[in-house]
């Protein structure tokens, strides 16, 4: 068996959604659904701006998450609150969020009524 040189390996940070384990004829299979986390910039530019038609920035996303009590900035860096820890990936220097927060943010926006004439 070949030994692996771990000197160059980087730690892998990820989270999983659903994990399904099955066994058939003595072989165990593990099916993992990966959960992608997004930065505030990615949430703003790739999701909220196209959905709402408004200009979103990472600052606006961060402010919304702060107002919603999902994050705070006590020491100059954003940190998830206890409420936000369920949706946050804080294993890297940049705080990232589950795509679920996009819907949570959208629910906080005032609803605009459009009347058909």
Short description:
The protein is an alpha+beta fold and 117 residues long. It has helices at 40-52, 58-67, 100-108; strands spanning 15-24, 27-35, 71-72, 79-80, 88-89, 96-97.
Molecular structure report:
The protein is 27% helix and 23% strand. It is α+β, with helices and mostly antiparallel strands and 117 residues long. The strands form three sheets. It has a two-stranded antiparallel ribbon with strand order 1-2. It has a two-stranded antiparallel sheet with strand order 3-4. The protein has a two-stranded antiparallel sheet with strand order 5-6. A hairpin with a 6-residue loop joins β5 and β6. The longest helix is centred in the middle third of the chain and has 13 residues, at 40-52. Mean pLDDT is 81; it is low at 9-16.
Can you lay out the helices and strands and say which pair or pack?
Blueprint: E1 15-24, E2 27-35, H1 40-52, H2 58-67, E3 71-72, E4 79-80, E5 88-89, E6 96-97, H3 100-108
Antiparallel strand pairs: 1-2, 3-4, 5-6
Helix pairs in contact: 1-2
Number of strands: 6
Strand content: 15-25%
- Binned, the helix content reads 25-40%
Order of neighbouring strands in the sheet with most strands: 1-2
Separation, N- and C-terminal Cα atoms: 75 Å
Kindly name the structural category: alpha+beta
Uncertain segments: 9-16
Oligomeric status of the shown chains?
A: single chain
| Global geometry | elongated
The run of helices and strands is: EEHHEEEEH
Mean pLDDT: 81
Radius of gyration: 19 Å
> Main beta sheet, described?
2 strands, antiparallel
Number of distinct helices: 3
């Amino acid at each position: 068996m070949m030994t692996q040189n771990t000197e160059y390996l980087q730690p892998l940070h990820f989270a999983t959604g659903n994990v399904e384990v099955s066994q058939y004829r003595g072989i165990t299979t593990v099916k993992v659904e990966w959960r992608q986390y997004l930065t505030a910039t990615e949430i703003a530019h790739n999701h909220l701006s196209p959905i709402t038609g408004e200009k979103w920035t990472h600052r606006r996303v961060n402010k919304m998450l702060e107002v919603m009590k999902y994050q705070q900035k006590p020491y100059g860096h954003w940190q998830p609150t206890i409420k936000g820890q369920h949706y946050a990936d804080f294993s890297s220097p940049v705080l990232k969020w589950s795509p679920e927060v996009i819907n949570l943010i959208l629910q906080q926006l005032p609803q605009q009524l459009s009347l058909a004439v």
